[in-house]
Amino acid sequence: MQKKVEVEQKKVEEAVSVSSESEPFSQDMLVKVWNGYTQYTKEKPVLQQTIQQCKPVLGTDFRIMLAVYNSSQEEIMLDERIRIVNYLRKELHNGKIELEIRICEASENLKTFSNKDLFVKMMEHNPSLSRLTKELNLELS
């Protein structure tokens, strides 16, 4: 696995266009531009969801850290990495941007919800579920 990551890193370093610009930018600007990348991911729903769920963190020397939840997301992001870095460099006017992707520890993103909590969250997104539970006389324990 480490070998694969090293090979990918070399490919990224070779393929990513480097600009001489190095304008500073803030975490807020990074997140705004990051969210803007979703317009290019409409044909790739899993990539789009990953970009929306996993927010980048600006480190030192324009190094951006991205913690993903699992190896599938990591693989998707590694495949898209060159395009994302080029997009970020162009939009933020900074050719020194680098992107590091890692799988976060379980405790970093672990959220436990009860069945009732999950159902309430689902009803927020789809109010018809409330009507359906009433019509079917369902109870959630």
Q: Could you explain the architecture of this structure?
A:
α2 (27-36) crosses α4 (71-92). The termini are far apart. This protein folds into 2 domains: 2-109, 2-Layer Sandwich (GMP Synthetase, Chain A, domain 3); 111-141, no CATH class. The chain is built from 7 helices and 3 strands, in the order αααββαβααα. The chain is elongated and about 65 Å long. With 141 residues, it is mainly α.
Write the layout of secondary structure elements.
Elements: H1 2-15, H2 27-36, H3 45-53, E1 57-58, E2 63-68, H4 71-92, E3 98-103, H5 106-109, H6 115-125, H7 128-135
Parallel strand pairs: 2-3
Antiparallel strand pairs: 1-2
Mean pLDDT: 83
The CATH architecture name of the largest domain reads 2-Layer Sandwich
The description of the largest β-sheet is: 3 strands, mixed
Beta-strand portion reads 5-15%
Shape field: elongated
Please state the structural category.
Answer: mainly alpha
The gist of it:
The chain is mainly α. The protein is built from seven helices and three strands, in the order αααββαβααα.
Index terms:
about 55% helix; about 140 residues; mainly alpha; elongated; three-stranded mixed sheet; GMP Synthetase, Chain A, domain 3
